[in-house]
């Protein structure tokens, strides 16, 4: 069945598109988040491997897998069919096998058709060539071959915050920003405070870079 996606509009997303993940992290550090919301070990795999100007910005649509013996029931429907336009699909696992992929090419085909801007996988994904042929942005820890079904089930979709990936919890709707530097999560509640800090820092850095290029020392420029 075909679907028609609704154009996604969010002024914060529009504003964030002009900044890098480093700019976002700098602002979050100033707001008291020591690691700047950075998700270590997650890098760009598609459409290129750590290359190019690919950037994703959007609210997180969170998906949590867990081992079959987890007491939580299996999610009754497939999460990929409810991805909203403009979202970043954020998939993680609460334990279980580290070998099985959490995500594959058909998921990206459906996500792209729904208007998602990219997927972030805190674990392995598969079908790398298919992802690249789709031109769909994937950020992940590594690649794999086996699907999740034999050992894992989906236990939560876009309802509960995710803890333990960085110094902040990742709640559904928080802003996820990914580029060649990595992936950063900006809590929705801090977005309006963070954006002016980004603007100020980028302006200051540009002035410093210009002076350093003219011969000024770094110490003098700072």
TrEMBL record:
InterPro entries: RraA/RraA-like, RraA/RraA-like_sf
Coiled coil: none
Pfam families: RraA-like
Descriptive protein name: RraA-like protein
């Amino acid at each position: 069945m075909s679907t028609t996606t609704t154009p996604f509009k969010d002024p914060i997303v529009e504003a964030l598109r002009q900044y890098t993940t480093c700019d976002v992290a700098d602002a979050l550090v100033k707001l008291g988040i020591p690691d700047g919301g950075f998700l270590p070990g997650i890098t760009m795999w598609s459409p290129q491997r750590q290359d190019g100007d690919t950037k994703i910005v959007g609210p997180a649509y969170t998906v949590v897998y867990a081992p079959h013996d987890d007491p939580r029931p299996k999610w009754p429907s497939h999460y990929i069919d409810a991805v909203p336009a403009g979202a970043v699909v954020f998939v993680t696992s609460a334990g279980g096998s580290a070998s099985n992929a959490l995500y594959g090419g058909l998921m990206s085909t459906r996500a792209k058709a729904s208007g998602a801007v990219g997927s972030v996988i805190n674990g392995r994904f598969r079908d790398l060539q298919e992802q690249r042929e789709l031109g769909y942005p994937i950020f992940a820890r590594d690649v794999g071959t086996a699907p999740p079904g034999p050992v894992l089930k989906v236990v939560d979709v876009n309802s509960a915050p995710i803890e333990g990936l960085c110094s902040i919890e990742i709640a559904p709707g928080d802003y996820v920003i990914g580029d060649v530097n990595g992936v950063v999560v900006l809590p929705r509640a801090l977005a309006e405070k963070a954006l002016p800090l980004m603007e100020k820092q980028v302006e200051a850095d540009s002035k410093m870079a210009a002076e350093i290029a003219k011969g000024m020392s770094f110490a003098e420029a700072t």
